[in-house]
Amino acid sequence: MLLRSAAAATALTLALCLWWAAPRAHGNDRWELVADEKSVAYGRVVATGEREAWAFGWKTVGVGAWLPMADGPHRPTAFHWTGGRWTERDLPVGRGHIGAVAASGPSNVWALTGASVLRWDGRAWTVMREQPATAGGLAVIAADDVWIFGARRAWHYDGRTWSERPVPFTAFRVSARSSSDIWALDDVHPWVHHFDGGTWTRTDLSGVLPKAPPASGEAPPGPLHAGLGAITADASGVWITGEIGASSFLLHGTGSGWRSENTSATAGRMTRDAAPLPDGSGGHWFLGSTDPNGDASALAHRTATGHWTRIPTGGELTSLSTTPGGPLFATGTIGRARGVFRSLALTSW
């Protein structure tokens, strides 16, 4: 009898543990699913105001739409949040994937997709122009100041017309603080380029980059030379993430120069194209991880004084976004839930 009772208690304890550890359909105790849309899990979310945000994904069309194992052409889709539910909004394109997305406010959201450059003006999405074939970088400063970057070319919108301009590099990530303070990562070299409103100048970052991956018997293979990933320019300086081997690093540039910080122990392996996200107080959010492969996401935070905190998310997140005073949103997968999540414990402050 005692053995049977012990066995029953053990079984009950195991069942409770399994129930507690089981993935939840709505997320977990740290992240709540707010937009249940599977394709958005691999897209991105962009907050444009304290109570406004957009998330971008796609729908499979053609044969792939009704054959579960088939993939086919994709139609970009957008989901809009205005403080309540997330509502699907039609985009004026039939095929393609969402590329770069940027905004200067709730009524000035831009997206590169397929062969088109799209803009939300507060009322509707419209096609602003045909997308240049090599375009990848996007900087939205104001409704009359938008930049698209490609292979040694840039296209500028002044609110009425587009102009094409040569640039001495190929950009793949950009960030702007103003029309006379634009920063771009070079697609080929370890360089960052700065535009002061009239001239582009180049800074070679080779001197502050890690020279070799840290020795580790557990780390998976990765690039043997340091590569730059994403960039954010804000009031606290210019922040650039990068990777060498399976290790991540962070570069910080100010008027006094550049310095490098190994973030493998503090943030884990970072999501390569997730730019540092300002928290409104001089610190930044990062998408890190808790394993060498970078699969188990963690929300990493660096204060303005350099103190790090890393909190496992319980899933795999792909993008982060917030605005001062607004909620912190993420896209990705947590348990059985896929789509857009809202942080239950953290805000942008």
Task: Give structural notes.
The chain is mainly beta. It has a domain of 85 residues. 6% of the residues lie in helices and 53% in strands. The strands form six sheets. Strands 10-11-12-13-14-15-16 form a seven-stranded antiparallel beta sheet, with no helix packed on it. Strands 1-27-26-25 form a four-stranded antiparallel beta sheet, with no helix packed on it. The longest helix has 20 residues. The termini are far apart. The N terminus is likely disordered.
Layout of helices and strands:
Layout: H1 2-21, E1 31-36, E2 44-49, E3 52-60, E4 74-81, E5 86-89, E6 98-105, E7 108-113, E8 116-120, E9 125-130, E10 137-142, E11 145-149, E12 151-157, E13 162-178, E14 181-186, E15 191-195, E16 200-204, E17 227-234, E18 237-244, E19 247-254, E20 257-262, E21 277-278, E22 284-289, E23 297-302, E24 308-312, E25 315-321, E26 327-334, E27 337-347
Antiparallel strand pairs: 1-27, 2-3, 3-4, 4-5, 6-7, 7-8, 8-9, 10-11, 11-12, 12-13, 13-14, 14-15, 15-16, 17-18, 18-19, 19-20, 21-22, 22-23, 23-24, 25-26, 26-27
